[in-house]
Structure formats: C-alpha cells, structure tokens
C-alpha cells in the first residue's frame, strides 16, 4: 500500500504542505477519506488542492456531504476554492437551519455545474460597472473598492478572488480611464478630510474628558466615553461590590509597557497621564509589564523602564507583570473552552489569516469541548510543535470588526520567559491578557492610545464571558513630535543602523536620550501636561519648539549662569598690565540676585566668541571690529584697536580698556579670562532630519541630516565651576544657551564634554541684552 505522503504527491500537493499535513493526525484521516472517495489516483495541483480543501474545511455537522463535495470537485463542477468555500458554508447554514437539503436545491443555489468561464465572469463585471458609469465618472478613483467588490460577489459568487479583483481593475480602467495625478490628489484630499474628521472626533472626546474631570472628578470620569454603550462593558452591582471590597473605592490606573524596547516621549505622555489622573483623584497607578512576548523581551528593557519611570518622578503603587498571572490566564482559557467560547485550531498562520480575512470559519471551530480541553492540556505539556496548535476564541468569524474574528488566545513557543522562567511553553496573546490583568488589578480606568479603540469590543467580550469586573476603557491620541521619529521600530532602525550612537543618543527623544542631553523630568512633564489639553489642529504632531520651550522654561529657573566661550578668539587689552586682576561678582540668576553670585577675574587677556569679532566694522555689527566700542559683561567697556588675521581668519583682537566715563555700548559680550579659562569639548545638536519625517512622504532614513551633531573642541569654560561639575550638571552659558555635562566626561581626570541642551529663545536673548544694557 502506498504511503499517504506518496499519494498526496500524486495529487500534486507541495512537499512543505505534505510535511505539515503529516504532523496532524486528524487532517491525515480526513484527507485519506477524501482521496478514497475520489476514485482517482492522481490530480493536477488545482484539483489536488480542492480535495485538500474539503478535508480541512468540512465540519462534523456536514460530514454526510463529504462524498458529494468530492464528486463535484472530481467532475469539475466545483473548480475553485472560492466556489468550494461558498458551497460548504451554504450547506453548513442550510443544515443548521433546516436539518437537510435537497440535491437540486443545493446544485441550483450553489451554481454546481454551471461554472462560468473567465470570459463570462469578466463580461458580468463589465456589465455591472457599465451600469454604474455615471457615478463612477463622478467619484472616479475615490470609490470604495471593497463596496464594489462586495456587490460583484453577489453577481458572480463563485469567481475566484484574484480573478475578480484583477478583472475589476481592468474593466474599471476601461470605463473611466487610468488613474491620473488629479485622481491621486482627489483621493489624498478625501483621505485627509476623513482623517481630520476622525481626529476632531477624538480630540473633542479627549479635551472634554480632561476639562470635565477637573470640575467634577468621580461622576464625570468615564461617562464621557462611549465605552458604556457596549452592553458587555457594564458591571453588575455585585461585580462593583466585589471589586471595591478588594481594592477600596479608589481610582486605579496603570502604565503598561511591553518590555521590548526603550521608552520615548510618547510613553512619557502616557506615564504623565496615568500617574497624573491617579494622583489628582487620590488614586494609585501601577507599573505593569505587559510581558507576553518572551522572544522580544528582556531584563535590560525591564530595568531601564523602571529607571525611566522613577526618573520621571513617579512611584508606582505596585510593579506587576502580566506573566505573574499566567496561571490565572490559563484557568480562564479553560473556562472559556468549557463554556464553548474557545477552540483549538490547527490551521497554520497563513491559512488562518486568509480565513479570517475572508470571514470563513476555521474547520476546527466546532470540535467538541472535551477534545479542546484535551489538546489544550497537551499544548501546555509540550506535546505539540510550535505553530501546530493555537487556542482561539470562538466569537464571530465574519464580524465586521475583524478583531472579533475568532482571534488567537494562546500560542506555543518553546522559549523561556524573562520573568516567568521556563515553566510555560504556551503564552497568552496581548489582546486576551490585557483586559484580564486590568480586571485582576482592579483598574478603574484603562487608558490607552487610539489604535486600540477597535479592540475595545474584544476587551469587553473576554471580561463578559468570564464574568469579570470591567474597567472603563479610554483612548487618547498618540503623541508625535515634529522633526523626529518615535516608534520603537524606527528608533531601532536608527540605533541598529548606527545612524545615532545608541539608545541614549541626545538627538533621540527616548527618555534616556533626553536625560543624557540634559532635559529635566519637570520640563518633560510640563510638556506632557500642556499637550494633553492642547487642541492641536495638526493631527497631534506637536512642534518640537513647544518641547524646547518647556525645557527652557524649567531650566531658566533652575540653572545657574556662567560665562563660557565656545569658539574662542583672544583679546589682548594693551593698556592693562600683565599683573592686572579685578575680581568681579556675577549673579547666578540675573533676574533674582538674591539667589547668590559667583566670582570671576578680569585680566588683560580674555577670550571672546569668534562670531563676536570681525575684520572690518559694519553698522549692523555690534561686536569687536577696528574702532568699535563694546562692553564685556560685568567688567566694563573696551575699544577695539586692531584685529589680526591669517588667511582671512581672525587670530587676535587688540583693544584698550576705557577706564573713565565710558560711553554706553550697544552690546555686552560673554568672555572668559585667559587666567581662568579651562578647555573642554562642546557638542551641539541640530535636527536629526533635513525634512520633517512626520509630514514628509519620503522614507525617514533618507532624510537624515549629516550635520545633526557638531563637535567643538577647545571651548573655554571658567575653571571656577569645575568643583561643581558632575555627570548631568547643568549651566546656562550666558548668551549661548543651556548645557549639560555628558557621560563621556571623565570627572576625576577633568576632561569635560558638554551637550547643548537647548539655545536661548530669541526673546530670551533680547531680554538678556536689554538687562545688561540697562545695568
Ligand atoms: P511604539 O509603538 O512607539 O513602539 P508601543 O505602543 O509599542 O510603542 P508599549 O510599550 O506597548 O509601546 O506602550 C506602553 C503604553 O504607552 C501604552 O499604553 C501605549 O498606548 C502608550 N504609548 C506608546 N506610544 C505612545 C505615544 N506616542 N503617545 C502616547 N502614548 C503612547
Ligand atoms: Mg505596543
């Protein structure tokens, strides 16, 4: 007797597919039956696959039609998968409803034997589209392709999907002509309009939420969101009572990162929102690691996330792990199986994706509860290969909300888990885990970003079927910042592609990058506060300048001033002796002199900024040029006598100090005396991108700015500040901006590297100048 593998080969089934089939006893039995019934020994690929299709798709309730279906395929009365699927689903429905079905009725309603040729199908499509010509000419390529395809499906129900969609395109083009640039514009406009409507809708909700909460905390929180519209989202009084007995009648929120990467400023917004709401209403916020994906997660990420949350000034109520609930999640899955709400499926990923897309039930959907329980247990015990069995929820295989089309709950992975160790080889999926963990932790408000909105129904489905307490789900918009990228995928591309120096590169808006650059948690939180209540018309892309503004505002009040020169030129003051030294008091905060001062020495040789010198004077230039009278901040006024240069580059300035009755200069320059100057390196950061990636059509990696990092060696700081310098120490360099000591500095060896945090705002610069001028 020939082996099954050999037989399948004769029916032109792929080697790989054969290997998959052989792994599964049920399918083997089923296909063997079909082959026996077919009465043939070989077939071409198309027919072979149709017979295989019968074996996988037939359900126990229509077993008696196995022979009939096989016959139709062998006689070429069913000639494509689509026709087969249609027929199976027709029989299935009819049997469930009527209990039986007459052959003539079946054949008539399923078009058995009346196979249309491709040309006939194409003709039908043409006829239909021609009947819609008038509308089509008006709306052109903004038409909803899926609506048209759906309508055509009714007309040619058995046509193969691929043929249908290609013919649709060909015939459409024949009627309204090919898609033009103008059409593309029309489509883009429509999309933009829709996106805007959507985002306005969300924004209204979001602002309403934030504004109203402030006035009337408890009652209003939550009612605003239509989560309550879902019957499945309602808690019974008993559930509320149980929840409150366990957790008290307090607000609980959670920040639920997946430990598969480093946090960025978008996460800071989520942290700010979750912890902020909780503390505002005397509640608490958990830090929960949503760790269901062992392959992608690790301890390094877990630790860095903990650090980041702490650095942002937050103390979690508790730090928890979804994986701590693996046992409960497993028991819940068994509960679902027992209630007939979950089944084990052996379709491979590709197949199940296809079925879900087409709204077709899995062939395993209706297997008995006992069998599901047994195989699920076998899965847990490691008796099935990865990918050979998946536990799926039994919800609605053709729901318009595709997340409800019998989604996966558990999959097999033979890897150990960074937190749970090696106890498990089946892991629950995020969509299933999240609501259960929220409920178990007594979360009252489950705040998440808008891309989860579509999953809200699924979230409540699990909790309803498990009869568990249901938190309010709120979605808020994702934060994007102009001129930069935030998603983990893009950040990874930048880091692993060596376009930046690591996750903490100061050009990135990762929490680590911002920290290293010198941004403060207070500044970042102020920014988060501001954006969550801002109605920003720009689809929640917030300007980088707003972030810089918040950082600057915080630093202005917390950062001491000092004078430094980044690109130095020496000034020799000829009318002061070499021994001259005047000790000056410079205020730490010029607008709040009561906060203290520091001493600096003025001598006959000082450094000034190169951009404050010029070979020839000009009326719009206020720095040092021959003949010009200029102030040196805190020290007095000098007159420039001569500017020396080599190859057009200024090498030295010669000046005289005006001791008596100096005129009022237009500008006071920052300077450092040669006696107190100390060399260090300064790193200046420009935008990572030459064009804003949040609005550009180009791929973000094509937009990288080659000059995003500028090194300046030989900058001069005043050595008096050295005792105060540590990693991350911050100063305002007067007239320049804010700077922080980078981790590349060696404090004990006194090699210092500064990062420019942010420049002074133009108005800030102006004001500083005015103040000095008035002084
Ligand atoms: P990304 O897509 O940027 O890689 P993520 O959504 O995969 O991030 P998670 O670890 O799943 O990252 O996110 C944890 C929490 O932070 C979630 O509640 C998520 O909604 C929220 N969050 C992530 N990115 C943003 C953002 N840009 N703006 C606001 N909240 C965000
Ligand atoms: Mg995520």
Automatic annotation (TrEMBL):
Family: Belongs to the class-I aminoacyl-tRNA synthetase family.
GO biological process, one term: glutaminyl-tRNA aminoacylation
InterPro entries referenced in this protein's UniProt entry, alphabetically: aa-tRNA-synth_I_CS (IPR001412), Gln-tRNA-synth (IPR004514), Gln-tRNA-synth_Ib_RNA-bd_N (IPR007639), Gln-tRNA-synth_Ib_RNA-bd_N_1 (IPR042558), Gln-tRNA-synth_Ib_RNA-bd_N_2 (IPR042559), Gln/Glu-tRNA_Ligase (IPR050132), Glu/Gln-tRNA-synth (IPR000924), Glu/Gln-tRNA-synth_Ib_cat-dom (IPR020058)
Name by which UniProt lists this protein: glutamine--tRNA ligase
Domain Glutaminyl-tRNA synthetase class Ib non-specific RNA-binding residue range list: 2-160
Cytoplasm in keyword set: no
Catalytic activity: tRNA(Gln) + L-glutamine + ATP = L-glutaminyl-tRNA(Gln) + AMP + diphosphate
Residues of the tRNA synthetases class I (E and Q) anti-codon binding domain: 669-742
Domain of life, source organism: Eukaryota
GO cellular component: cytosol
GO MF, one annotated term: ATP binding
Ranges for domain Glutamyl/glutaminyl-tRNA synthetase class Ib catalytic: 251-556
